[in-house]
Design goal:
CATH architecture of chain A: Clam
Order of helices and strands of chain B: HHEEHEEEHEEEHEEEHHHHEHEHH
Number of strands of chain A: 15
Oligomer: heterodimer
CATH topology of chain A: outer membrane lipoprotein receptor (LolB), chain A
Radius of gyration of chain B: 32 Å
Number of domains of chain A: 1
Strand order of the largest sheet of chain A: 8-7-6-5-4-3-15-14-13-12-11-10-9
Number of strands of chain B: 13
Largest interface: A-B, 27 and 25 residues
CATH class of chain A: Mainly Beta
Order of helices and strands of chain A: EEHHEEEEEEHHEEEEEEE
Shape of chain B: elongated
Chain lengths: ~270, ~400
């Protein structure tokens, strides 16, 4: 069983190098689901959460994806290629549209840099800039910088069951067990046999729903189950949300270490 | 006394030439006084309104707070020193907590600064008292610029999202209880004011503030982790702006004055040439050359006095009108500078300004009047009487 966070690049505004990572849930499963299934039925909420975390494969992957922002004034699609190593390292290059082409983004741990060819400058994204929307999408840079495993920062409790994408899902309510989390409460819909999160709701401290994630499609790629389409929505905002589509993934790809350096942004 | 009398008589005797020179020079007078008084007025007005509504007698800034560095806003808030808390309780200080947030007006996303202030404060002249109202929701107060850009009206409810001290997101609805108008953009643009106690509670920053503003006259004190900023820092932008604008405008009246001085210089040269026989006669009759030079120089200098009088004839009504009605800027231009500019600029005249202007013009006129007369020092009276220029 494997799952990953994938990072897709984007850009904020014309000529501004505010580029961020879009995190998608990319889950995959080895073709051994039947062997694991009996074990799953007895899983406690905490154990299930740990399984979801374990699914996050720290291996390398190269991914081509697109992000479509369903805004108030129409839709915009940005296509990109990402090289990802575990949770901490990611390098992304824009492929389309032409005005975004060549913009690059590097994430190392909790640091983020962007490079815009037009300005030929590398800019660090920090502080207040992290609060900005990525390209007018429903994500802020902060949303995309989260790395920690849920089992270390949330206490899980059962909150019912529901069918999502024709898959029976267990709903877990995650309540923050440490103070410094972005969302105090999350509700996640977990495909128990694949340990895939198919739906998520993020709540503020007062219990107000802030953001949602709905997986629209799950496919098998290189023998793993992958969430290939997901819709992320900032529910406080108008618009149809931001849709992520994974076009291709190359698991366990060879990625030169030099790619994850600031110098590579200018190349 | 003969020289001034002669000079005045000759000046008047020059007729239209004199009046034309005086008129051109008077333009410089009026332009200098008007221009400088406009900038002086702007400085006074902007400083006053900024002191009234933002700077007061100075501010204590917490920790790393830097208004020009948004990355400092999250880390800056600190516990208000006990002394300042006590002062605030007695109305002699106003703590302000600044927290970055996001509002969602009509479904749009807009970054703002949430500013918490005591609605009962009396240090700053802004209508924070309206924050005492509200009907269940958190009361919010915005300036007209923020209201316009966010499309908010009084009574509207807007969702605001923020991160607390630990970094956890939360959101709530705030009710816009009032919209205030101010010249000071730095208390308006992209800002939502709310009661400080509410902001402290929802962000988990109880007893904390980012800045503490004290009234005028309060002596600065030292508090660990807080730095006092006086008017030199808080009004620096205004002073720099005025200096830059005044410098730019000076090109206009320096050009005007150069034209006038050139005309005077030219008139002097022609006058000495035409009156060479008169000069020769005066020298031949025993008048020292220095006095002859003095006569011609004084004639030129008197032009500046005449110009001041001419300028007063049409300039005074103009300057009085300006003082009364101001110079109304085109719509939207006042805001485009990003400073506390009023929609109309009112000049501030001072006796010092008028005297300084008269002295500058007098000195410049005297110099250009003197330069052509140096020729007289080498003039032979016999040649001059024959109409020759030796």
């Amino acid at each position: 069983m494997k799952s990953n966070f994938l990072k897709v690049p984007s850009r904020l505004g014309i000529g501004r190098p505010a580029v961020g990572f879009v995190i998608l849930f990319l889950a995959a499963e080895a073709l051994l689901a039947g062997l694991i299934a009996p074990e799953q039925t007895a899983l406690s909420p905490a154990a299930l959460l740990e399984k979801i975390d374990e699914n996050a494969v720290p291996g390398n992957k190269i991914m081509v994806s697109s992000m479509t922002i369903h805004g108030r004034r129409g839709d915009r699609t940005v296509k990109s290629k990402s090289w990802i190593e575990g949770d901490d390292k990611a390098f992304t290059e824009y492929l389309e549209p032409p005005r975004e082409k060549g913009i690059k983004m590097l994430k190392l741990g909790d640091q983020l840099w962007t490079y815009t060819p037009a300005a030929d400058r590398v800019i660090g994204i920090s502080g207040n800039m992290l609060r900005q929307s990525v390209m007018g999408s429903d994500l802020s840079y902060e949303d995309m910088m989260e790395n920690r495993k849920w089992s270390t920062i949330y206490a899980a409790a059962d909150d019912g069951t529901e069918t999502v994408l024709d898959r029976p899902c267990r709903i877990l309510k995650l309540t923050a067990s440490v103070p410094d989390v972005a969302y105090e409460v999350r509700r996640i819909w977990v495909d128990e046999s694949r340990f895939l999160v198919l739906k998520e709701e993020r709540y503020g401290k007062s219990g107000r729903l802030l953001k949602t994630l709905e997986v629209g499609e799950v496919k098998q790629m290189e023998g793993r189950w992958v969430q290939t389409r997901a819709l992320f929505r900032d529910v406080l905002k108008e618009g149809g949300g931001t849709e992520f589509i994974i076009e291709s993934v190359d698991f366990e790809a060879d990625i030169p270490e030099v790619l994850f350096s600031k110098a590579s942004l200018r190349k | 006394m003969i020289i001034p009398k002669l000079a005045l008589r000759n000046l008047i005797g020059n007729g239209a030439k004199t009046w034309l020179n005086a008129l051109v020079l008077s333009f410089s007078f009026v332009a200098i006084i008007w221009g400088q008084s406009i900038f002086e007025g702007m400085d006074k007005e902007m400083s006053k309104v900024t002191i009234d509504q933002e700077a007061a007698g100075g501010q204590y800034w917490a920790g790393v707070y830097d208004p020009y560095d948004p990355t400092s806003f999250d880390e800056a808030p600190a516990a208000i020193p006990a002394d300042l808390s006590a002062e605030a309780a007695e109305g002699r200080a106003v703590p302000i907590l600044i927290v970055p947030g996001t509002i969602y007006p009509k479904g749009r996303m807009m970054s703002v600064l949430l500013k918490g202030v005591d609605p009962g404060q009396s240090v700053l002249k802004l209508p924070f008292g309206s924050l005492k109202g509200g009907s269940g929701n958190i009361p919010g107060l915005v300036g007209t610029r923020t209201a316009k850009s966010a499309g908010l009206s009084k009574g509207d409810t807007v969702t605001v999202r923020w991160r607390d001290a630990a970094g956890t997101f939360d959101a709530a609805d705030i009710e816009i209880v009032d919209i205030f108008q101010t010249q000071v953009q730095t208390v308006d643009v992209g800002q939502v004011w709310m009661p400080i106690q509410t902001l402290q509670e929802i962000t988990g920053r109880s007893g904390q503030a980012t800045i503490v503003t004290v009234p005028e006259g309060a002596a600065p004190k030292t508090y660990a982790g807080w730095a006092f900023q006086d008017h030199d820092v808080l009004l620096k932008d205004i002073k720099s702006f005025i200096q830059a604008k005044a410098m730019g405008f000076s090109i206009f009246y320096v050009t005007l004055m150069a034209m006038a001085l050139l005309a005077i210089f030219n008139t002097q040269i022609l006058s000495i040439w035409h009156r060479r026989r008169e000069i020769g006669t005066m020298i031949a009759l025993g008048m020292p050359r220095g006095r002859v030079i003095g006569l011609f120089t004084l004639e030129g200098s008197l032009l500046s006095i005449l110009a001041a009088a001419v300028g007063a004839v049409y300039g005074l009504p103009l300057l009085i009108y300006m003082a009364k009605h101001g110079w109304v800027l085109p719509a939207g231009q006042a805001d485009s500078f990003g400073l506390a500019l009023n929609k109309a600029l009112y000049p501030a005249y001072s006796l010092g300004l008028v005297i300084m202007t008269i002295l500058i013009v007098l000195a410049a006129t005297t110099v250009v009047s003197f330069l052509p007369t140096r020729k007289i020092a080498t003039l032979k009276p016999t040649d001059a009487l024959k109409g020759k220029w030796s």
